[in-house]
Amino acid sequence: MKNIYILIALAVFTAANAQLTLVKQLSNAEVPKYEDVELPQIFNNKMYYIGKPANPQECKLYVTDGTSAGTQLLKDLGTIYTTGNGNYSTIGSFNQTADRLYFLRSQHLNPSAGGTPTEMTTELWVTDGTAAGTIKLMNKTTPVINYSAVSPISLFGRGGVQELNDNFAGNKLIFTAYDPASATVYYGNQIAWVTDGTPAGTQPLLTATGEKIYGGGTGGTRLNNEYFFGGRSQVSTDLGGFLYRTNGTAAGTVKVNPAAVNWFVGSHFSKPLNGQFLFWATDNLGPSWNQQNYEIWKSDGTAAGTQLFYETASGADSKKPYYGNVLDFVNDGQKFYFMLKQDPANIEQNEVWTTDGTLSNTKKIRDATNYLVDYTIVSNGQIFFEEFIQSPSTFRLVHSDGTAAGTTVVSSKNTNRPSFALYQGAAYYKDFDQMVPYFSNQVADNMEVWRSDGTVGNTARLLDVLPGTTTVSSYTVSNSSKPTNFFTLGDSLYFVTESPKNLYKFKGDYTFNNSVNGNWSNPSNWNAGTVPGFTDPVNVPAGFTVVADAPAYAGNLTLNSPLILSSGNLNIGGTLNLGANITLNANSVNLGPAAQVANGGPSQYMVTNGAGTVNVHNLNAARGTVSLPIGTANHYNPITVSNSGTSDTFSARVSEGIANTTNGAVNATWDISEGTAGGSNVNLTFGWNAAQQNATFSAAGAKVGHYYNGQWNQENSSSVTGSGPFAITATGITTFSPFSVMNFGALATAETAMKSLNVYPNPFRDALHISVLESGIFQLYDTSGKLVATHFLVKGVNTVDKSDLPANVYLYQIKNSAGTVTSVGKVIKR
Hints:
single chain, mainly beta, Immunoglobulin-like, 9-stranded mixed beta sheet, 5-stranded antiparallel beta sheet, 72 strands, about 45% strand, elongated, disordered N terminus
């Protein structure tokens, strides 16, 4: 169904930086060697990194706990080679277990300055966070031929995916390294190793039958406290391999599928979801890569549960991409993502797909184009990824909730973002405002800290760390701090700036302080010095009156002061905890796909005093029942809504009074609509108090009334419950218009009459559809009684364009050709 959730763009703002603090001015040697921070570098709430010494062959391990004193050299690892000129060090991936952090460092030997490297030595190191506990576990030297060398030791690393490593069992790390029995090192003869963090405990990982496991031990996943990975029992790949599981001991290392023939793993594994993990594999090894029929397999860790999950192409063909697989089998906690070639013969056009592990929910969410995903960060139920468009060469930032409608390009700037961090559900990174002329070039202006909460409107510069401008000759450019190395510790975000070389801390404390005025949109009114986004936790203490003078956003919102929506909608991504009223006026409260409302009651609810509505997005069976504590200025009239039909967006408001009945009734009308008509199956519960019941109303036998075809029709209803306040539930609702609670009596047969007369949708934005059995006249009045529109009707469905009308409540009447009024009612223009 169509999702009508529209987020209005916010203007780019510059923060007052109230909670941006300088942690430490870094020396050149203390600056991180690389711009990105991998998640495994965060260990025991400290970030470990290799510095950037003046001598490129030096290698020093630094650590920071987010304080100046705690940002320091942990250990100088020394140099590997004492001879040669132009030697240089590189650092491999970081991996961790519960009690230790592991990392690789390599150094190339250059016999002469500017010459060609002749060999490379790689070392595996471990640290427990102390200098004494930072030791070398093993090393291996390999030749460098034509600037190329085989890495003899490898740790787990996805290369562009921000996730923790899974290659451990208990306190033992599983990794890939050379075969000690082989005189040469090449990728085909490397085997699985295990280490407990000591040199003596660092050794090849053998199976229970004493076999080596060729292919190595990285790229797997953890399930039920065991580590699963693909490997083989021989050097050659021609005979295929197996799925292995291990607890870190030889006795606990076995083949999961020992009967497999011509079976081979062709990718890393996903993190488990609902007790199973996915990976590319084939059981039909062919003569060439493109004929090996790699398909998507699943496993629950048993032989019977290791099986083909999804065949992407028939026969020996496969839609497994050749490259650009950074997105493959990323798990956001609710679903897996993967990429497919558009067709087996096309290596340029790739599609994005998702699955929850069932074939019925395996679907394409992004059409094919010539892009590669080069970076992915994962949040709860959503991901951000940077894609590289090959022609023309462009980088774009994309956010996805795993649906086609929810996959959006949030930034089209051609920026390669080398470092991201996920903080409070949003992506933080560096970007620029615009390209500006500088002599004969175009340069990026104001390269600063940006934030994206997954909406286009809130993808904007957040912090101006280095304000001001610089003028050279006749060219003026904004100063740029050029932030990199984004990471989080505790409740704060950290990053390093290139100009000047500083470590900064930003704490996103979105507590409203009313320091300037009551306006939500003023950054100075928030402790963070910035306005909250769609994922940020927001706290509004008691004692204020807050005015949403522009579109307002929050993740979890705790509201203890009245909030008035004057010039923008309130958009909630998490839980809205009500401790005071929200007055909507002509604006709306948008509850995102996972949002809920808590603690509603007679003294804290959403007042639908105008044309504004409360909108629940992506309501379906999986989401369950959503409570909407709504009411008028004088009465609390909550509803609950659930939908077992097609997912849709539902809108609700309530107004005082009821029209077109003289029977006993509750003096309240609930206007409820769906985003796209059809496919819904809704249960609604309505609440009211005794003061709203007219004199002839009787709770005994009362029913939910549904106004359509020009009259009130009885819905399938429960009995009234409660002794004040009261509630009643209607079930199986499939169409939507005004609802109320009443005694039907003689009206009880009305539900069988005039089924073809209807005015919809209600509320509406641009067009009204009017279905009638005969020709007639449709007249529309404003609430003062002024006639604002007249339209002639023909038998059937008539569509009238009322986009020119201002948002308001309108009354209508329909007359037949004889001039008799056949229907009256109320519609809401948004």
